[in-house]
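This is your field. Have a critical look at both lines of this record:
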Amino acid sequence: MEVSTGELIAILAPLLILQLALVGVGLYDLTRPDRRVKGGNKWVWGIVIVLGELLGPLVYFLFGREDA
């Protein structure tokens, strides 16, 4: 079974868009002045969001944020 370039793009494009959206929303939320994070270190959570690919932003939203 061979996958053409067009099919590969059609499969990967939605995942790439989802990943970029999650990273963008995660970084936006992280940089809010009133946002508190577990461990108190926003730089570490920023690295998790950016380098964690698709799971990094999800981990941040599920476990990294503290309730105000």
